[in-house]
Write a structure and sequence with these properties.
The protein is mainly α. Helices cover 70% and strands 0% of the residues. It contains 5 helices and no strands. The protein has helices spanning 2-14, 16-28, 37-52, 61-73, 75-79. Helix 1 (2-14) packs across helix 2 (16-28).
C-alpha cells in the first residue's frame, strides 16, 4: 500500500491535471490510446469545471464523509446507525 500511495502522490504532484484525467478515464472505462474526440472534449471540460470550482478533493465527497464517519464512530456505528426519529 505504501509503495502505491507514494507513486500516486508523486504522479499527482508532477501533473495534477493529467493525474486527475487518468483517474477520470479509469472510472469511465476509456483508454487514453483509443480516446474518441468527444471523450477527449468531455475529459477536458470536466477538468475545466473542476478547476473553476476549485475542488481540492479527488474522490466523491460522500466517500470522504463515509471515511470520516467510520474513523470517528467505528464500523459498527456506520453499518447500524441509530434512528433519530424513533
Amino acid at each position: 500500500m505504501n509503495t502505491i500511495h507514494s507513486t500516486l502522490s508523486a504522479l499527482q504532484k508532477e501533473s495534477p491535471k493529467l493525474f486527475y484525467q487518468a483517474l477520470l478515464l479509469l472510472d469511465m472505462g476509456v483508454k487514453p490510446s483509443t480516446i474518441a474526440p468527444d471523450e477527449y472534449q468531455a475529459m477536458e471540460h470536466v477538468w475545466s469545471v473542476r478547476e473553476a470550482n476549485k475542488s481540492k478533493q479527488m474522490l466523491d465527497p460522500k466517500y470522504l464523509e463515509l471515511f470520516k464517519t467510520t474513523k470517528e464512530n467505528g464500523l459498527q456505528f456506520t453499518l447500524n446507525p441509530k434512528e433519530d426519529d424513533e
